[in-house]
Structures are given as C-alpha cells and as structure tokens.
Amino acid sequence: MARSCCDIRLLLIVAAAAFIFIQVRLFTTQSEYADRLAAAVESENQCTTQMRLLIDQISIQQGKLVSLEEEKRHKDEECAQLKALVRELERKGLNSLIKNNKVPVAAVVIMACNRRDYLERTVESILKYHSPVASKFPLFISQDGTNQAVKDKALSYNQITYMQHLDFEPVHPERPGEILAYYKIARHYKWALDALFNKHNFNRVIILEDDMEIAPDFFDYFEATASILDKDETIMAVSSWNDNGQVQFVHDSKTLYRSDFFPGLGWMLTKSIWNELSPKWPKAYWDDWLRLKEVHQDRQFIRPEICRTYNFGEHGSSMGQFFKQYLESIKLNDARIDWKSMDLSYLMEDKFLNHFAKLVSDAKLVTGPDFVLKASNINGDIKIKYRDQQEFEIVARQFGIFEEWKDGIPRTSYKGVVVFRYKSPKRIFLVGPNSLQQLGIKDL
C-alpha cells in the first residue's frame, strides 16, 4: 500500500515536471512568435513609409513635369504668335510706311482685349477719317491676351499693324478684393507704349481704347496741339476728352483749356514723357496714378471744351461706372475745324494764365443758395465761389456736373477753377478757395 502511494507521487511529480516543461516551451515559442510578429509589423511600417515617400516624390515630379509641359506650351504659343506678328509686319510694310513719312505726327494705338464688336465699331469710326492722314498717323491695334475673335478682326484690317501682348504671369493684387483686370491693363499699357516708343521709335503716341468713336477733326486736333506739347514743358499730355462735356455744358468747338486734372480717354504723350513714366509705371490703376501730384509734378494737360472722342463702353472692366449718369450724354464734336489756321499760342503757360484769369475776373460773382436759378437769369459769364470739397459737391450737384475729386482736385479744374457752359454760351466758373490768388486776381 505504501509502495502504491509512493508510485502515485512519483507519477505526479513527473507529470508536473512535464507540464512545467511544456509551459516553458510554449512561453518560449510564443515569445519568439511575438518578436517575429513585431519585427514583421515594423518592417511593414517601414515599407509603407518608404512607399509613401516614393509616391510623394513621384507626385512632385509629375507636378514639375506638368508645369514644364504647360510652360513649353505657353512658349510655343508665344513663339508662334511672334512669328505671325513678324509675318504680318512684313506683309503690311510698316517700314515702308515710316520711310514715306520720316517723322509721323504720332502713332495711334487702340488698346483691345476681348470685345470684338467694340473693337470693330472703334476701328470703323477711325477709318472714316484716317485715309487723308494715313502717313502722319500710323495705326496699331494692341491686343492683350489670346481672344481669337479679336485677333482675327484686328488682322482683317490692312491699314492697321497688329501687336499682341502675351502675359502668363499670375496677378498678385496688393489688397484683397481688387479687380485683377486693372493689373493686367496696366501691364498691357506699359508693354504697348514701350514697344511703340522704344522699338518703333515714334516721337509721340495717341492712346485710344476699344470702346471709342472719334470726331471728324480728331487727327487735325492732335496735329495742331503736337507743337504746343513739344514746346511747353509744363504740359504733360494732350487729351481729346472733357469730363463735363455733356451736351448741356458745352458750346464752342474751338475752345481749348489747360487742366491740372488728367482727362485720359484719347490722349497723346511724347517719348520724353514716357521715358520718365515707364520705369515707375504702377502695377494697377495707371490713370489714377497719373493724376497724383507727385507724378505729374504740377504739369498740366490740354483738353477741349467739346470732346473729340465718345466713350460707348457701357460694359467692361469698370462695369459701366458713370456711363448712364455722365458718359452717355457726352457730345462728340461734329464740326469741321480748320485747326491749321488757328493760333493756339494762348495755351502756352504764361499766356493761358493771363487769358484764363481775365475770363474769371470779368465774370459776375453770384452768391446765395439757388445758383441754377440765378445763373439762368443773368446775362454773361458768372462765377461761384466754393470753400471746400463738400461745398463744391453741393454746387456741382445742382448743375449736374461731375462731383468727383482725385488727389485733392475736382475733375477738369485749372488752379481749382472748374469751367463749363450752362444751356447757353455763358460760362460758369466754380472758383476754389485759393484760385483767385493762383490766378493773380485780387480777392472779391
């Protein structure tokens, strides 16, 4: 009996030892498998990371490849356009045109982009009066961009040389919410004027836009004023535009004025002026920039009483600003003026100051609230004094002329004086707080 108990204990000890041995082996095996599994997971993670890096590198290379392909496409397109332009210049014989008249009065450039119908209307207006003066005023169309309809229309005119501005650089506006088109327009103007003055070596250039009609005496007007522009260094440009040129505010087709306010909308400048402006040309809003005193440096602009251009551009980058209120009723001169027989020396700085001062001095002073009624009941020219911008706007609003100021002066003003007619030949002079002193007139 005792032997049996001993045998059982021995068996139990052997079984326990075997069990322990098996558990140790199982634990060792599980640990090995766990280590192998961890190593496998780590290896898989490394493979995944390397794969992602490889995918990123492939994406970057693909992006670069697409960018290079796009750049190549632009370069190919630009090269094709330039080749077409060279062929077009050769076909139209620009060189022979300039040789026939060694010193043209001015090149005339029409700035265009994507308005085919507007361009056609503008060109047809110009061609009505251009033939007799073709050698004096070589015509150009400068297109910004690749609108094919505009290009085809421009190339259809044998009398006009085509230029194309291709600019694929992205626009970075200086302030959020700005209209990007104004940046592109500024780039286009600089490119076109650089080309006309520096490449084609014109002495003067007249800038038109693709939404303008011209008057019958447009070319004669600019030919007559070109000599004044050359002689008088205090004149920065000659314009064909009067902001207050609505039919009820004008009367005399022969009358011209000096103005401290840049009118734009059909204007002529010289190469020397452009050489000054080109290096500092603004990124956008070039017309407002030209109205800054630090830019024009107290130089002035010649403008007519009755406009020699009509702006019909209700739709465009400015979205028809002022069109219904001011532009639609502008009077385009329809009288043939013999500018060659006219003496324009009164526009020279010293003479004009005395000439204009006498007009203002002779005008009758009107005071009181209802200026329009009083102006209607007085024969002859009148003058109305204003103390500041707010008071000017009140008076301007009564008559219906432009109220807007730029860089501290009202539109069309000379020495702070704004002059216009009012439903008759009589002149209305709105006289600023310092105007009489600047004109050399004793205060009233």
From TrEMBL:
Name this polypeptide is given: Alpha-1,3-mannosyl-glycoprotein 2-beta-N-acetylglucosaminyltransferase
GO molecular function: alpha-1,3-mannosylglycoprotein 2-beta-N-acetylglucosaminyltransferase activity; manganese ion binding; protein N-acetylglucosaminyltransferase activity
Chief subcellular location: Golgi
Top-level division of the source organism's lineage: Eukaryota
Organism: Dioscorea cayennensis subsp. rotundata (White Guinea yam)
Gene3D superfamilies reported for this sequence: N-Acetylglucosaminyltransferase I, Domain 2 (3.10.180.20), Spore Coat Polysaccharide Biosynthesis Protein SpsA, Chain A (3.90.550.10)
Cofactor binding, note field: The cofactor is mostly bound to the substrate.
Coiled-coil blocks: 65-92
Signal peptide as annotated in the record: none
Required co-factors: Mn(2+)
Membrane topology annotation: Single-pass type II membrane protein
Sequence similarity: Belongs to the glycosyltransferase 13 family.
Protein function: Initiates complex N-linked carbohydrate formation. Essential for the conversion of high-mannose to hybrid and complex N-glycans.
Enzyme Commission number(s): 2.4.1.101
